[in-house]
């Protein structure tokens, strides 16, 4: 995609699964495989959501019900996360963007436990993500779904921009999969990294296939 005017982003928003965290497309699928959830019910809930028979919140609740039925807890989730790792040069790239004067955000249908596990010290200014709640024994007792996943990601970027006193034209988005299409079309600058679907190549301003996230840095010169 060709940009009509040169971008001048102030905020860089990232997807999480597959973009900042390597080895997975979606953490939800990985969790269900790890704990052995009922695949038929999981698939039915997904189909019901995309057919608009249930809300995103209800889909989230069903996912949690299925995980709880298999004894999913904080310890088991951490065991899965220990088998994953950040995308090559992810941490270094985030800190370099901060050093160059950019604000960072996360806009993802992933889970807060994933972000906390891999990037606990990175000062993201805005984080829109699904959140889990645990009891004192580490069992899942509930959570709060993000309103900004899938088609809602574009609204999420607009909300992040509003909170930061910016326009959408001043926001960049970095993602890897089809659930990022709406926000890529909305962002002033969009980068598809390690793209998982050909549709991203038509929606993103730039496509990056290098295996390191540091390949995005030339698009973000120092602001300070």
Write the layout of secondary structure elements.
Elements: E1 11-14, E2 21-22, H1 27-35, H2 39-50, H3 56-69, H4 74-81, E3 85-86, H5 90-99, E4 103-111, H6 112-118, E5 126-134, E6 140-144, H7 153-163, E7 171-175, H8 181-186, E8 189-193, H9 199-203, E9 206-208
Parallel strand pairs: 1-4, 1-7, 4-5, 7-8, 8-9
Antiparallel strand pairs: 2-3, 5-6
Would you write up a description of this structure?
By secondary structure, the chain is of the alpha/beta class. The chain has two domains: 11-22 and 86-219, HAD superfamily/HAD-like (Rossmann fold); 28-81. The protein contains nine helices and nine strands. The chain has helices at 27-35, 39-50, 56-69, 74-81, 90-99, 112-118, 153-163, 181-186, 199-203; strands spanning 11-14, 21-22, 85-86, 103-111, 126-134, 140-144, 171-175, 189-193, 206-208. The protein has a seven-stranded mixed β-sheet with strand order 6-5-4-1-7-8-9, with helices on both faces. Strand 7 (171-175), helix 8 and strand 8 (189-193) form a beta-alpha-beta unit. The model has no long low-confidence stretch (mean pLDDT 94).
């Amino acid at each position: 995609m060709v940009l009509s005017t040169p971008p001048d982003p102030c905020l860089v928003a990232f997807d999480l699964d597959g973009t900042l965290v390597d080895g997975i497309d979606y953490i939800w699928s990985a969790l269900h495989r790890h704990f052995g959830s009922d695949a038929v019910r999981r698939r039915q809930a997904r189909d019901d959501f995309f057919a608009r028979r249930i809300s995103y919140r209800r889909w989230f609740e069903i996912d949690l019900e299925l995980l709880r039925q298999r004894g999913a807890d904080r310890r088991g989730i951490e065991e899965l996360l220990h088998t994953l790792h950040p995308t090559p040069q992810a941490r270094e790239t985030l800190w370099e963007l901060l050093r160059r004067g950019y604000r960072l955000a996360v806009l993802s249908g992933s889970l807060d436990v994933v972000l906390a596990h891999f990037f606990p010290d990175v000062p993201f200014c805005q984080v829109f993500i699904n959140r889990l709640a645990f009891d004192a024994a580490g069992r899942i007792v509930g959570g709060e779904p993000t309103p900004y996943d899938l088609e809602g990601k574009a609204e999420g970027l607009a909300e992040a921009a509003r909170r930061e006193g910016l326009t959408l034209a001043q926001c960049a988005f970095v993602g890897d999969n089809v659930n990022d299409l709406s926000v890529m079309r909305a962002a002033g600058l969009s980068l598809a990294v390690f793209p998982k679907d050909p549709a991203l190549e038509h929606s993103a301003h730039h496509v990056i296939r290098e295996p390191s996230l540091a390949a995005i840095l030339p698009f973000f010169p120092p602001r300070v």
